[in-house]
Amino acid sequence: MFRNAAGRLADAAPGWLVETVRIRPAPPRWWPMLRTALAVVTPLLVGLALGRIALGLLPAMGAMGTALADQGGSYRARVVRMGATALGGAVGFLLGAVARGTGWWAVLVTVAVAVLSALVSTTGAAGSSAGLQLLVMTVLGTGVPLGPPVAGALLFLLGAGWALALALADWPLHPRAPEEAAVIAAYRALGGLVAERDPGTVAAFDTALRNAYDTVFGARSTSAGTDPWRTRAVALLNQASLVRNALISLDLEGRDPPEGTAAAVEGIAASLAGGGPPAREAPTPRKGPDSPATRALNSALDGAVELLSGGDPPADGPPYERRGRGERLRQVWERVWSGHLTRVYTVRLALCMGVASAVSELNLVERSYWTTLTVALVLKPDFGSVFARAVQRALGTLAGTVLGTVVLVAVPYGPALLVPVAVFAGLLPYGMQRNWGLMSAFQAPLVLLLVDLLTHGGPRLAEIRLVDTLAGCLIVLLLGYLPWPASWEAPVGPRFADAVSATADYLRHAFDPGHTGRAALRHRVYDALADLRTVFQRAVTEPAVISRRITTWMPAMTALERVADATAATVARTEHGAPPPSDGAVGAAVASLEEVARDVRAGTPPGRPELAEDESLERVNSAVRGLSDTVSGHHAC
């Protein structure tokens, strides 16, 4: 019945609204795989047509690196990331080709580029991809004779441009597909939250909401003039956040969501996907009298429905503070040059790259640039656990070399090799989504086939690749991992303290209706919690002796999420009729959170929090006490 009502309203909706919110079919899931295969094979086919198949190797490498940098998001974000990757690879090849044949000077160049790569990688997603490609192509430029420096860099950019063109080929048909899909994903995750509010579904919704904000704002930042659709999309995401807080508040009251809530959220998502406004009768509570949390939930849902029905977005500011170019550059500069972890990682990478380059210069292993490449890929800081990557890289390469050997034995040298090249290139995006070992299993035979096209090395290349890769993994484990105890675990403690500080900042202004940045502070809390969960997941992939110690942070993380949720839920209730807490009670809770953050940074257990009794802040105070007790227990163990 609900869907029929929605369909009738869709028929009566203004044409501009249907056109604006209707999401066109997204490209199928196999399209990234086909796109990567086309990007890599096309330059090789051109080289084959010209009678010089090796001429297509550099464009194929540029296309492969750039295509793998496409991790989705808004078109702007994709262009920036892929463009930065292409530029980094071209500069890296130029530096490596110039340094090729200069003896130990080439080792110094590689170490210097490793330092530069580490610093560039701290600037964000685009910098991370660019830094990796800069280092990889420097190693290939010094180790493989691929042509003159300038001409080779231009060929690399040519292949990268082809991959970028393929990635943007569906833009005329799907100009807003990433943004629309992100908003729909947020509301579908909200539907899961209506059904069940366990920590997993809460985290899933918070991640979907954060991704949606990033995608919409990334596209909006380059739009000239007003953009009604994106303004409405941000307003819809704001309403989804309000629904989430109201649901948590209902849980704290011990109530179920009102009748019809799930259907309302489902209808909003269906309307976004299908183009018509949803129909919804005002929900009624399943039990008990009306409450501030119920009114907050109804108000948030009504606001979302009104937006889809053509109503004006609320005049509230955006959930993230907009920063000027100067502020963004200043923050990038601080990330590059400050931070103990950045300095330690830079030293580790430079040391391991220097040793691997020295092994190459001393000719201790054949085709030793594979050893140096392995070091660069395994020691990348934002790919996860170094130990796990080293093991997966070794096992994946072992499986990949077996596949490569079979292909090299079964397929004669020449154009026929382009078929398995296309297959393995197409499988790379799938492998990246699964795990590092599977990606290595597809990457190893692909690299073998590309090298064989250049050198006619035959099946023996597989044996050489395996030995060189194992040597690189050994260098990373012996010099870049074991001697650095701080690297055995991700920085969960500092990230936890940052999240506590962000929660304290939000609580300080949460009940001040005149503060214009409350939404920004709230979303900063959930951003910090998302970063904390990411760091935690990386840490638990370490060996058991380390991961067991890391998992002791889980109760404290859960307690901190409870503080953030209780704060957001209490705000939702006060905005819909519940009495606000006193300034003294809020100040005492803020001071307790700040003390917890200071004690975690200092490595000492926090004391018992001194909180003011206030019925309106009872749930927040209870959550703060639980956090302090949990953190004290964590330090005790």
Automatic annotation (TrEMBL):
It is a multi-pass membrane protein. Residues 356-478 form the Integral membrane bound transporter domain. Pfam families: FUSC_2. Keywords: Cell membrane, Membrane, Transmembrane, Transmembrane helix. The keyword Membrane applies. One of its GO terms (cellular component) is plasma membrane. It is found in: Cell membrane. The chain crosses the membrane at residues 37-58, 79-97, 103-120, 150-169, 402-430, 436-454, 466-484. Residues 271-293 are annotated as: Disordered. Its main location: membrane. Belongs to the YccS/YhfK family. This is Putative membrane protein YccC. It comes from Streptosporangium saharense.
